[in-house]
Protein backbone atom coordinates (compact mmCIF):
# COMPACT_ATOMS: atom_id res chain seq x y z
CA UNK A 1 0.00 0.00 0.00
CA UNK A 2 1.36 3.43 -0.90
CA UNK A 3 1.41 6.01 1.86
CA UNK A 4 2.09 9.73 1.53
CA UNK A 5 5.65 10.70 2.57
CA UNK A 6 4.58 12.16 5.92
CA UNK A 7 2.82 8.91 6.81
CA UNK A 8 5.85 6.84 5.81
CA UNK A 9 7.98 9.02 8.09
CA UNK A 10 5.58 8.33 10.95
CA UNK A 11 5.78 4.60 10.21
CA UNK A 12 9.59 4.74 10.25
CA UNK A 13 9.54 6.54 13.60
CA UNK A 14 7.04 4.02 14.99
CA UNK A 15 9.06 1.04 13.73
CA UNK A 16 12.20 2.34 15.43
CA UNK A 17 10.49 1.66 18.78
CA UNK A 18 9.35 -1.89 18.02
CA UNK A 19 10.30 -4.44 20.63
CA UNK A 20 13.79 -5.84 20.14
CA UNK A 21 15.11 -3.06 17.88
CA UNK A 22 18.17 -1.03 18.79
CA UNK A 23 15.98 2.03 19.27
CA UNK A 24 13.72 0.11 21.65
CA UNK A 25 16.72 -1.07 23.68
CA UNK A 26 18.21 2.43 23.97
CA UNK A 27 14.91 4.01 24.97
CA UNK A 28 14.18 1.32 27.58
CA UNK A 29 17.72 1.68 28.95
CA UNK A 30 17.30 5.46 29.21
CA UNK A 31 13.71 5.67 30.48
CA UNK A 32 13.30 2.37 32.33
CA UNK A 33 10.87 -0.52 32.23
CA UNK A 34 8.01 1.78 33.32
CA UNK A 35 7.47 2.88 29.72
CA UNK A 36 6.69 -0.65 28.57
CA UNK A 37 3.22 -2.12 28.18
CA UNK A 38 2.83 -4.81 30.82
CA UNK A 39 1.38 -7.46 28.53
CA UNK A 40 3.41 -7.05 25.32
CA UNK A 41 6.68 -5.44 26.32
CA UNK A 42 6.21 -2.82 23.61
CA UNK A 43 6.86 0.84 24.36
CA UNK A 44 3.73 2.55 25.62
CA UNK A 45 3.92 5.58 23.35
CA UNK A 46 1.34 7.49 25.40
CA UNK A 47 3.30 7.04 28.62
CA UNK A 48 6.58 7.91 26.88
CA UNK A 49 4.93 10.99 25.37
CA UNK A 50 3.78 12.17 28.79
CA UNK A 51 7.34 11.85 30.08
CA UNK A 52 9.16 13.55 27.22
CA UNK A 53 6.65 16.33 26.57
CA UNK A 54 6.65 17.39 30.22
CA UNK A 55 10.46 17.67 30.39
CA UNK A 56 12.45 19.33 27.57
CA UNK A 57 15.68 17.61 28.64
CA UNK A 58 14.07 14.17 28.33
CA UNK A 59 12.62 15.10 24.95
CA UNK A 60 16.09 16.08 23.76
CA UNK A 61 17.44 12.80 25.11
CA UNK A 62 14.81 10.84 23.20
CA UNK A 63 15.61 12.80 20.04
CA UNK A 64 19.34 12.09 20.43
CA UNK A 65 18.69 8.40 20.98
CA UNK A 66 16.33 7.87 18.05
CA UNK A 67 17.47 10.41 15.45
CA UNK A 68 20.12 8.14 13.89
CA UNK A 69 17.65 5.27 13.47
CA UNK A 70 14.88 7.49 12.12
CA UNK A 71 17.29 9.19 9.70
CA UNK A 72 18.50 5.82 8.44
CA UNK A 73 14.92 4.60 7.99
CA UNK A 74 13.95 7.74 6.07
CA UNK A 75 17.06 7.36 3.92
CA UNK A 76 15.97 3.82 2.98
CA UNK A 77 12.45 5.04 2.22
CA UNK A 78 13.92 7.67 -0.12
CA UNK A 79 16.05 5.02 -1.83
CA UNK A 80 12.99 2.82 -2.33
CA UNK A 81 11.09 5.72 -3.88
CA UNK A 82 14.00 6.57 -6.18
CA UNK A 83 14.17 2.94 -7.25
CA UNK A 84 10.44 2.93 -8.06
CA UNK A 85 10.71 6.19 -9.96
CA UNK A 86 13.64 4.80 -11.93
CA UNK A 87 11.68 1.65 -12.78
CA UNK A 88 8.70 3.70 -13.95
CA UNK A 89 10.92 5.96 -16.03
CA UNK A 90 12.72 3.04 -17.65
CA UNK A 91 9.50 1.19 -18.39
CA UNK A 92 8.03 4.30 -20.01
CA UNK A 93 11.18 4.74 -22.09
CA UNK A 94 11.05 1.08 -23.10
CA UNK A 95 7.40 1.09 -24.11
CA UNK A 96 7.75 4.36 -26.03
CA UNK A 97 10.61 2.95 -28.08
CA UNK A 98 13.07 5.55 -26.81
CA UNK A 99 15.26 3.18 -24.85
CA UNK A 100 18.79 2.59 -26.16
CA UNK A 101 18.10 -1.11 -25.69
CA UNK A 102 15.20 -0.88 -28.15
CA UNK A 103 17.59 0.42 -30.80
CA UNK A 104 20.02 -2.42 -30.14
CA UNK A 105 17.38 -5.16 -30.20
CA UNK A 106 15.80 -3.76 -33.39
CA UNK A 107 19.10 -4.25 -35.16
CA UNK A 108 19.10 -7.93 -34.15
CA UNK A 109 15.76 -8.69 -35.82
UniProtKB/TrEMBL annotation:
The keyword Transferase applies. The keyword Coiled coil does not apply. Gene3D superfamilies: P-loop containing nucleotide triphosphate hydrolases. The chain crosses the membrane at residues 66-92. GO terms for biological process: coenzyme A biosynthetic process. One of its GO terms (molecular function) is ATP binding. Keywords: ATP-binding, Kinase, Membrane, Nucleotide-binding, Transferase, Transmembrane, Transmembrane helix. This is Dephospho-CoA kinase domain-containing protein. It comes from Morella rubra (Chinese bayberry).
Amino acid sequence: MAYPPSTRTYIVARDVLKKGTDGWEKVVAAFGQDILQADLGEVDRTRLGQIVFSDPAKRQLLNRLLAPYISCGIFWEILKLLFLITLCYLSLRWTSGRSPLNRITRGLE
